[in-house]
Amino acid sequence: MNYRILAALGAAVFILAGCESAAQNNGSKAQPPSIEVVAASSVGVQPQKTYTTRIEAPETVELRPRLSGVVDRVHFLEGQKVEKGDMLFQLDDRQLTTRVEQLNAELARARAALQQAGAEAQRAGRLLRSHSIAEEQAELRESIRRQAEAEVSSLAAQLKEAELQLSYTVIRSPINGVVSRADITAGNTVIANQSRLTTIASNQDRYAYFDMDEGTWYRFFGARDVALRAPVRIQLTGERDFPHAGEIDFVDNTIDTSTGTLRLRAVLSGSGEALVPGAFARVKIAVAEAEQKILVPDRAIATDLDSRFVLTVDDQGQTRYTPVELGERFGRFRVVEQGIAEGDVLVVNGTAKVGPDMTITPVLLSETPLDVAFTLEDQAFDVQHSAGIKF
Fold first, then answer.
1. Complete domains list, the chain, with CATH
2. Quick one: pLDDT at residue 194?
3. Rounded CA separation 270/281 (Å)
4. Is this prediction's pTM over 0.70?
């Protein structure tokens, strides 16, 4: 009798366990797994290349004196803006001023002598015509006149040189720009064409030189006229976007045989206040026109041997194996040339958690190209997308 009771209880437990297992299986079928998905977006993209560079000023002058002497005064504040022709340094000019005064006096005396010699030569000419003077005396007076004339010319040239030397005692800015500190201050002796007084950098435009490999050059440009005026964007250290705009204004005439690169220059007009010469920067150049492309997160793409595919999701939450043809990569996004269309919903983690022909509960992520600019014309702003799938 006890054996019958135990057998009945065991059968009851077995039946209850089977029912519980069946209930769990039915529950799992009723609730498909929640899987993260994204919607493919159509945005304007533009193939670009990025290079490193250093910001340069178009004009940089190391100011040096044209003659030796002692610095008398410094006429600028270090770091201030200066205009072309502004006085920056004054050298001691007393000796040269005295020399100019002396030559002026000697020139006045020589001109007086020339006037007298000229008058005597004219009188000798009249007397010679009336045979009242010997021909030799007339020629002598004419020779004295010519010597006096040469003396005037010589002294005038010496005076001009002395005045030029005197003008060199005032050292002026040769360009518009920002002046650095005074390397030599008042009271110090400078040597002509050697001592550096200060430096001046122009403050209007800025240059950014960079080297492009010849493969990229011939693939996208190939001719100087094609590259000239191509737009570029500049990013300084610490900047998130590329807010500074410029264009290509120079292409070198030879490819560097040691590096296989061609040097280009971008000019950023009117950016002297924001860009300091010598600053490290990144320059981004568009190598093709902007086009509307389908973009998806790169992690939504999976690999099947030598092909690429994504898992698309229909309105019923069913996954499908969809081969795709890929284009260029832009940050964390990838261009899909063929296989999907704008608004198609994709499993974002590829085949890591789910496979084809499965039913899932899609969880739409906001991972779209909202915060990434893909064209040079919009590097500093968000790119809007048009996908709007909801579940």
1. 31-46+290-378 (2.40.420.20), 49-58+204-286 (2.40.30.170), 68-92+169-201 (2.40.50.100), 94-167 (1.10.287)
2. 96
3. 17
4. no
